[in-house]
Amino acid sequence: xxxxxxxxxxxxxxxxxxxxxxxxxxxxxxxxxxxxxxxxxxxxxxxxxxxxxxxxxxxxxxxxxxxxxxxxxxxxxxxxxxxxxxxxxxxxxxxxxxxxxxxxxxxxxxxxxxxxxxxxxxxxxxxxxxxxxxxxxxxxxxxxxxxxxxxxxxxxxxxxxxxxxxxxxxxxxxxxxxxxxxxxxxxxxxxxxxxxxxxxxxxxxxxxxxxxxxxxxxxxxxxxxxxxxxxxxxxxxxxxxxxxxxxxxxxxxxxxxxxxxxxxxxxxxxxxxxxxxxxxxxxxxxxxxxxxxxxxxxxxxxxxxxxxxxxxxxxxxxx
Amino acid sequence: xxxxxxxxxxxxxxxxxxxxxxxxxxxxxxxxxxxxxxxxxxxxxxxxxxxxxxxxxxxxxxxxxxxxxxxxxxxxxxxxxxxxxxxxxxxxxxxxxxxxxxxxxxxxxxxxxxxxxxxxxxxxxxxxxxxxxxxxxxxxxxxxxxxxxxxxxxxxxxxxxxxxxxxxxxxxxxxxxxxxxxxxxxxxxxxxxxxxxxxxxxxxxxxxxxxxxxxxxxxxxxxxxxxxxxxxxxxxxxxxx
Lengths: 319, 241
Known about the structure:
heterodimer, A: 319 residues, alpha/beta, Rossmann fold, six-stranded mixed beta sheet, four-stranded antiparallel beta sheet
């Protein structure tokens, strides 16, 4: 549905997007993740035809965004970053205006405006002036506008930026409802967001795609073999001794955790499950265990790890 | 075409949602009415010639105030992004915006129509020069507003857009009107004739006298198209930055 090949974008001497290629199948929800200034918005702007790439090509719903720009744009519903709207217009009036620009006739416009207002929870605010709406409601108008012509492709640039947790949950619910009917590409830097909703996550850093896969796949890749948390009734020194005696285990840190207990974080050097070994070693020394569990790596850790690597690499490149 | 008119309509309505629209209408009405009262005396010739002559001058400052926000405001608020990712061409955007302020120009001219009616009821004016005068004003206004659209497409700062518009219009009015009296121009036939040709006031004079000359119409229409074309180029150039 969305396909890019070797997209490159230079802003003068700055390289914003560096040979980005991906292919998104119809009906998927894809999260586009990256730190600020990584090239997320630029890539989305290229896809929507707002900016041309310096080189490379992109097609949306089978139309090249450069050579068949108007056909491609007709297939896209786009919510730009920071939701620009005409603040002097009323919600309904604005949606009619958008509908006319999208070449919808009067009947389908009326019908769709009812549908999207209902869907985005705007029914009560249809007659209100956009400038008087709250941040959350403005965001809804932006999404309603993108959904208006029921486009096969939805491109949302930070749809949840600046919203409170309840509003974020509502938007997430809305996107989940749209699953299947639309191919959705959304950018964000809020990780839990993407973990919950996206089928696939692409992480972009310094203009390059550095990771691509389902949230589960990405999480699995973090660390080597996973992390263990151990809590036992002994002093930190003894615990450290016991744990280092196990081959394949690498003690990351040990701290006292009160009540005579100590807590240690252990990294497995291989993919082997160390829980049995740790249990046995503690039993052997007569140490009582209170907790022993895998610490599931969050996508956040992965994100920090991978984007830090990337920025280090670009620093060494520069040197 | 529908899309172009949609943009034009939004542009026209938005002028009535901002104080600028009313300030311009107010100033224009006051200025034209003052001139009308000064010249509407029992022994004066029945016509609008003097009013029209003045209108060409003060439209230099009034019209740029209505055109300055055309694209600058869209750039500043970011709404340009939704507009330029809609399935329509850049030329449609510019044309729609220009047509919108042209619609405003018609609203603005209402006091002049009323004055023409008063003269018609109180005297026996020759309707010819009045009608051609209105046509001339429409053409002058269309050129001013095309220059305004061009300046607004150049910057996201409305004040700059206003100043650029006034500066460019001044070249075709003040400069080419008064510079020919300077010694170095007076003695250079080519320069003097070029300046007289490029002067909007000179081009308008024939209309005010009741003449419809093709060359005058060609001047205004081609200059308007030229500036609208530049505006489209500027809008397009944003994509290539």
